[in-house]
Amino acid sequence: MTDTPPPRLSPDSIAIRAGRPDSGLAPTLCPSTTWVNPTLEDARRGALRPRSDRFYARYSNPTVRAFEDAMAEMEGAEAGLAFGSGMGAVATIVLALCSSGDHIVAQRQVYSGTQLFLQGVCPRFGIEVTFVDGTESGAFAAAVRPGQTMLVLAETPANPQLALVDLAELGAIAGPITVVDSTFATPIFQRPLEFGVDVVLHSATKGIAGHNDATLGVIAAELDLIHAVWSYSVLHGAVASPFDAMNGLRGLRTLPVRVRRQADTARQLALFLEASELAKSVRYPGLESHPQHELACRQMSGFGSVMAVDFAGGSDVARQFCEGVRLAKMATSLGGPETLVTCPALTTHAGLLPAELEAADITPGLVRISVGLEHPDDLLADFAQALAAS
After folding, report:
1. Which residue in 38, 138, 155, 201 has a CA-CA distance of 20 to 30 Å to 94?
2. What would the CATH number be for the domain defined by 11-251?
3. Is 56 considered catalytic here?
């Protein structure tokens, strides 16, 4: 009789089963920051063992470790590493892997916090960054400097304009470590590691935790790379709270159901907004009008809960719409149960200069919408009355 490997579970089943180190059905909260060592030799082993989860909480924690293991399984990776926020993950992986004289290639269409870190902090440490158009075929590979480029950093779909990066093309780049921020897609709709990408990164604050009550970042990759990043993360200190990790595990259990419902509603709202005379354009990967819709169909199994609408009337109409919705709320996060609207030029990307906003195609009339779990008919009615008053 030969042993056969267990069947590969679907992400829906993995989300339910992953990250359970014991027999408890609910995530186990371990708030302890430190553990008693029976001998000094045990203490020494804890201090030297990567990600020791019963030594000191900055090294790891059992609840945080359970979340990391669950996310690794969701992404099909050997290991995961959690952080206190998505930007904690970005900053740590850059500073863990890059030194003075190194080079990074990143896309222009990226979350403003990432952009400000790359163009402001990195040069202070002697790390050069080249920004490219992530939607242009071959742009990442063409900007790589053999022997100097340490990281190639992409975000797809990108915040806030939903631009896409070709994952297969990115994964084929040899030499530097490739990193993809996959926050908008979640592991349900996109798995970058399957395309040869080295590291997948999430702001788990968003769809993964999914209830606007946890601040988390996480990466997943092969074990040796996770250990290399962890060895710096202990010094950087942007570690995840066990309370937030518990909420991250709680959110993961319902992630597949939530994001599929949100994506279905998002498509209905996108079609509705696309038909409005007030909308100059609507960006949603699930629309055939999206310039990269074919690419989205190739590398995503669903199109997510976030869209962007550029109002023809500019900032005045955008402001009136955001302030006119009643069921939806005006707030800057995404991925939670409530539908949220915001003007990126005035909020999430307010730190960028006018020229930088223009380069990222973030206009004064752009509104980002994160679709929640309300009934689609109620949201359609809410958007209709807000448009009528705009």
Report:
1. 138
2. 3.40.640.10
3. no
